[in-house]
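Below is how a single chain appears once it has passed through the pipeline. First comes the sequence as given, then the structure the pipeline wrote out for it. We keep one example in the README because the format questions we get most often are answered faster by looking than by reading.
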Amino acid sequence: MSAKNHVFQALFDARYDPATGRVANPLVTLDEVADAIRELVRAGSIELSDRNPANFIKDYLRSARRNAIWPAAIRDAGYTARQRTGVGQCFEFFPIPEGQEPFPDDFLPTGAEPTFTLQTLSLPVTTREIVRVDEQSLAQIAVKLHLLEHFLASSPNALGNGLREITHLQNNVKLRSSEIDALYKAVAHVDGESRTGAIAVEVKIGEPIIAEQIEKQALAILDDHSFEFCIPVIVKRTRKGEIVLMQLAPVGRDDIGPDGRVDIGGVVYGARYVFAPELPRL
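Resulting structure:
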């Protein structure tokens, strides 16, 4: 069992009632994670730093083996963990939906997406050769090749909701409660009026797509009164030389519930892209 699995197990055991099959206080804070690590280190059970509990579950979710290595005792009890972001929050013990793995992607391609060829002739050969397989590089390539512009121009949902213009603003946007891999300004014409919103782009390579993370991005954008709506878009590398984009329905400030959350719904449009000429490393 990995060091982190010992921590998950200790936190779970302190909350789980085998008689009822329920977890009391399923939300786990950053302080609780750090305390559990220190206690297990003192007991000689693990060697693990407690200095950055914010990355405790983030790093776990990045593992391609996250489903295989999840503690069997927690899995058998019917629970997984979901990342929770916000002041002092780390993760929450959550029932595993029937028939699912502990850590599935919340948004997956269907396999029926239309396929487009994305030209790379406008990129210098040297640039094509040094592109790395990471999220920052893919976000930069998306900007250089106007990927979002093509994708949303082909989306019936985006055009049907009046989208008429998008402009790239910045990559790697760090906000108080969220991070956005790429941020675009969006202009939509609705009922004869022009509305300004934003497109929040989440880029993933090999990691699960977490609905709560997308929701936090939308809420962070709607907290800025410069923007009236948010269109969440996911860019995911599915295999070498291929990426899939998924658009979620636009959300506005009126969609935020009394609990401060917003239902971002499911995928309303997706498309698959291949590169020509290919990007050797992507």
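The longest helix spans residues 30-42.

See the next section for the split statistics.
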